[in-house]
Amino acid sequence: MGWWPFAKKAKQRVINNDPILKDTRTWLAELRDACEMNFDNPEEARRQIRHMQVEWKDAVDRGDMAPHLREGLESRAFRLLSSSDQEWIRRLDDLAFWKAGWKPTQDDENEA
Question: Does a structural domain hold residue 16?
Answer without folding.
Answer: no
